[in-house]
Design brief:
Elements: H1 2-11, H2 18-29, E1 33-34, H3 35-45, H4 51-63, E2 68-70, E3 78-80, E4 88-92, E5 98-101, E6 127-130, H5 133-149
Parallel strand pairs: 4-6
Antiparallel strand pairs: 1-3, 2-3, 4-5
Helix pairs in contact: 1-2, 2-3, 3-4
Keywords: Cytoplasm, DNA-binding, Iron, Metal-binding, Repressor, Transcription, Transcription regulation, Zinc
Cofactor: Zn(2+)
Family: Belongs to the Fur family.
């Protein structure tokens, strides 16, 4: 995969460095990772990497469009490599699991505000909140257990 990252970094006008390659490797293995997870993963490959270096790499990757930063309310910022397609996210209120979901309607921005206030809208960011399958199943089991115990 390093050859692909090398090519993509150069295409984006970034130098190819070990920290950048490490961060890209971690992001490819862990979509929707927070900065701490990325720091830990990158340092596993290169123990001398500082957290500040990893944060700088993330900022550079986001600025050139190789990575995307998403910020679900009440959660740390997450980073992913799926960029340029204006997809949205599902977030579990219980465990924090995140899943990609394609645009709600058609092509970007796929949703239109009732009033643009003079803005030219080119992207819509939507976060759907709920319980993932596992947490929903656990909640249903707990409800049945509590319900069954009270009768």
């Amino acid at each position: 995969m390093e050859t692909t990252w090398t090519h993509r970094l150069r295409e984006a006008g970034l130098r190819v460095t070990r920290p950048r390659l490490s961060v890209l490797d971690v992001l490819s293995a862990h979509p929707h990772a927070d900065a701490d997870t990325i720091v830990t993963g990158a340092r596993a490959q290169h123990p001398t990497l500082s957290p500040q270096t990893v944060y700088g790499v993330l900022e550079a990757l986001v600025s050139v469009g190789l990575a995307r930063r998403i910020e679900p309310a009440g959660a740390p910022a997450l980073f992913e490599l799926r960029v340029g397609d204006n997809h949205h996210h599902l977030v579990c209120r219980s465990c924090g699991a995140v899943a990609d979901v394609d645009c709600a309607v058609g092509a970007a921005p796929c949703l239109s505000p009732s009033d643009t206030a003079g803005f030219v809208v080119d992207e819509a960011e939507v976060v759907f909140w709920g319980l993932c399958r596992r947490c929903h199943g656990q909640a249903a089991e707990e409800s049945e257990t509590v319900g069954g115990a009270s009768t």
